């Protein structure tokens, strides 16, 4: 079961008008194409994704009355780890005092949190682990191209975490479908800084340490795949629209969210959304939504989570709250 959720977003607000001072864009274009009005950026030197992850997990432990030493596993879903190694999960575990936990990072781009939720749940299902923290944390401001208006306005920074625990009740991850297709590599990636193209002056001059996205191709894939996989989960579990409490979609683009909503047959009120305030925080979008809507959620609510991201990766999870 998910026994708690908690999030953290940095204080600094970068709104669309502010972006228009740096690149040739405007509020109307960004809102009408994406639904984003503002996003948060983590400022300050030596501040990586772990800083936000630590805040989210600290709040989660407090909320769930968990002593840090009780945590068995910290699983961090991120595309912007503090560094290649050690894992950001280890840095977060150390930062919150989870001295008995093991941890690792998981990268499935924007679908990472769903992959992490399913992976974390399976550790619980083995019966060996009692408290698993899955945290989505991304400092997207560290990898955006500040001169590319097509991508820079889309992303924001944030983190959010859930606690997974065993229960006798039939709640938690009921069903899931995770998919991937490496055909997506050319359309959404960060080319340099890895083993194929290690950092050099040339790669930096060529701006290869920032997000490269062919927006319209990604959009076409995302619209189809996210809607298809969500519909598959709904049909497989024979859920009628009135039995679904909320759709919880990855927050990349309002039009992609809307296409998924229509395919599943839900009214707008049943869709968790905060893209207007945070933009695309990659691995944090879905848990940040759960955090935002936490007070509206009731035990036993049927949630359909859905995501699409670089890879390509995509998936859907039927989560009973
Ligand atoms: N402001 C003003 N104009 C802009 C901006 C901007 N910020 N960005 C692009 N434009 C212009 C383009 O230059 C282009 O102008 P042109 O016709 O003169 O060349 C025009 O707007 C249309 O550009 P498109 O890219 O075709 O715009 P589109 O309607 O496709 O929207 C967008 C672009 C919002 C990026 C869309 O393609 C999209 O949302 N793609 C998917 C993003 C996504 O979901 N990514 C997956 C998750 S990310 C992850 O996994 C890390």
Automatic annotation (TrEMBL):
Residue runs in coiled coils: none
Pfam families cross-referenced by the UniProt entry: ACP_syn_III, ACP_syn_III_C
SUPFAM superfamilies cross-referenced by the UniProt entry: Thiolase-like
Gene3D superfamilies reported in the protein's UniProt record: 3.40.47.10
Catalyzed reactions per annotation: malonyl-[ACP] + acetyl-CoA + H(+) = 3-oxobutanoyl-[ACP] + CO2 + CoA
InterPro entries in the record: ACP_syn_III_C (IPR013747), ACP_syn_III_N (IPR013751), FabH (IPR004655), Thiolase-like (IPR016039)
Ranges of residues in domain Beta-ketoacyl-[acyl-carrier-protein] synthase III N-terminal: 104-182
Domain of life: Bacteria
Record key words, sorted: Acyltransferase, Cytoplasm, Fatty acid biosynthesis, Fatty acid metabolism, Lipid biosynthesis, Lipid metabolism, Multifunctional enzyme, Transferase
Compartments, record wording: Cytoplasm
Beta-ketoacyl-[acyl-carrier-protein] synthase III C-terminal domain: residues covered: 235-321
Keyword field contains Cytoplasm: yes
Major place of residence: cytoplasm
Region listing for ACP-binding, in residue ranges: 251-255
Active site residues per record: 110, 250, 280
Matching NCBIfam families: fabH, PRK09352.1
Record function comment: Catalyzes the condensation reaction of fatty acid synthesis by the addition to an acyl acceptor of two carbons from malonyl-ACP. Catalyzes the first condensation reaction which initiates fatty acid synthesis and may therefore play a role in governing the total rate of fatty acid production. Possesses both acetoacetyl-ACP synthase and acetyl transacylase activities. Its substrate specificity determines the biosynthesis of branched-chain and/or straight-chain of fatty acids.
Family of this protein: Belongs to the thiolase-like superfamily. FabH family.
Record remark on domains: The last Arg residue of the ACP-binding site is essential for the weak association between ACP/AcpP and FabH.
Assembly mode: Homodimer.
Listed name of the protein: Beta-ketoacyl-[acyl-carrier-protein] synthase III
Organism (species): Persicobacter psychrovividus
């Amino acid at each position: 079961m998910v026994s708690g959720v908690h999030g953290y977003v940095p204080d600094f607000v970068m709104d669309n008008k502010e972006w228009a001072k740096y690149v040739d864009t405007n509020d109307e274009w960004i809102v009408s194409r994406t639904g984003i009005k503002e996003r948060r950026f983590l400022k300050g030197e030596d501040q990586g994704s772990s800083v936000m992850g630590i805040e989210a997990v600290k709040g989660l432990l407090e909320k769930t009355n968990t002593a840090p030493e009780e945590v068995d596993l910290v699983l961090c879903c991120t595309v912007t780890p503090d560094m290649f190694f050690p894992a950001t999960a280890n840095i977060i575990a150390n930062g919150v005092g989870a001295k008995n936990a093991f941890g690792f990072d998981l990268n499935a781009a924007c679908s990472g949190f769903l992959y992490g939720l399913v992976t974390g749940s399976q550790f619980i299902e083995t019966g060996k682990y009692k408290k698993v923290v899955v945290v989505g944390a991304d400092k997207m401001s560290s990898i955006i191209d500040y001169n590319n208006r097509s991508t820079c306005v889309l992303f924001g920074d944030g983190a959010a975490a859930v606690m997974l625990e065993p229960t006798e009740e039939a709640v938690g991850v009921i069903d899931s479908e995770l998919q991937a297709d490496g055909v997506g590599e050319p359309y959404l990636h960060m080319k340099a800084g890895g083993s194929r193209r290690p950092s050099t002056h040339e790669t930096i001059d060529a701006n290869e340490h920032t997000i490269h996205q062919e927006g319209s191709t990604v959009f076409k894939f995302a619209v189809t795949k996210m809607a298809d996989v969500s519909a598959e989960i709904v049909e497989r579990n024979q859920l009628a629209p009135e039995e679904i409490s909320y759709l919880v979609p990855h927050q990349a683009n309002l039009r992609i969210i809307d296409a998924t909503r229509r395919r599943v047959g839900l009214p707008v009120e049943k869709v968790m959304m905060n893209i207007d305030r945070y933009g695309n925080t990659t691995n944090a979008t879905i848990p940040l939504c759960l955090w935002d809507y936490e007070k509206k959620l009731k035990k036993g609510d049927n949630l359909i989570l859905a995501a699409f991201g670089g890879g390509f990766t995509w998936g859907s999870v039927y989560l009973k709250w």
